[in-house]
Amino acid sequence: MPESRIPSRRGLLLGSAAVSAGALLTACTSNEPKNQAAPSAAGNAPVADDKPGKPVTIGFAGPQADHGWLNAINQNARDRAKKYADVTLEITEGSNDTAAQIGQIQTLINKKVDVLVILPADGKALTQVGLQAMAAGIPVVNLDRVFASPQAYRCWIGGDNYGMGLNAGRYIGEQLKGKPDAKVVELAGLDNLELTKQRSQGFDDALKNYPNITKVARQAAEFTVESGQAKMAQLLQAQPRFDALWNHDDDQGVGALRAIAQAGRKDFLMVGGAGARSAMDAIKADDGVLKATVLYPPTMAASAIDLARALGQGKGIGGMAELEIPSSVTLYSAVVTKDNVGDYLPTGFN
């Protein structure tokens, strides 16, 4: 699952929909615009739109798509690139081996692509190759898992892990605020990932606003169906009564729901995470414990293609006064419930 930085990354909030092609601002590999005439006002800056412009070759390198969310990342990138007649997408096979991914990115650098979009398997380990691309004059859009140095990318775009936990906690808090001595449990992801710590911290901070609620148990799973089922079974056995469950990841949530069904438990509400189509379908049906999911939208990959296209064309977007695209873009973790699930179903991933 993705790993991103927190508070400093949350300055610019976007919804779960991809950044439109008409929303990107003029930019280059540094913060100084080049090869463009100075506009008389910000509103006169060149603006990227759906009309064909300068051809741009975008290299896309991500980790192995061994998870529903990661597969959706690749698909969003491909689909967005197909929208533009002026974009050629060079996409790598994807690997969770850092040496292999570095080699793939170096191949794209040697091909002299115009822009790189990189979702690193390990941000720290791949920082050097990001620096190498920037030094070669190829602007880098760093997707989600952040490089260790801001010099390794021109723009970062990703999700808000702290905000994900915060919004899950707020939703649960509002559902249980009238219930005395309410109890909640948490099914987290991999504890060795910073993103898991951020999600848990956000959840805990939200619950501080609801003194009637106590978190009585937390179990870490591994973002897989199998681990979700096994760890949820342990939680259910250890906790004969609780009122709400927050599960960090909808993929492992499939296993959690199996364990819940096998135990015959219907006495609590469940909130998922990420925005899988299966979770949204269950929320829409409203016939089980799953009542909401907090988005970590894979549409960020489509937005990254928009940003890369604007960088390659030296253009920008409407809707902002600045001539440059921002250095970071953090997506908003919307809560999907039965009341708004119809709006988000098209973004659900398998």
From TrEMBL:
Residues 32-52 are annotated as: Disordered. It comes from the Bacteria. SUPFAM superfamilies: Periplasmic binding protein-like I. Residues 58-315 form the Periplasmic binding protein domain. Keywords: Signal. It is found in: Cell envelope. The keyword Transmembrane helix does not apply. Pfam families: Peripla_BP_4. Residues 37-47 have a biased composition (Low complexity). Its main location: other. Belongs to the bacterial solute-binding protein 2 family. PANTHER family: D-ALLOSE-BINDING PERIPLASMIC PROTEIN-RELATED. This is Substrate-binding domain-containing protein. It comes from Streptomyces omiyaensis.
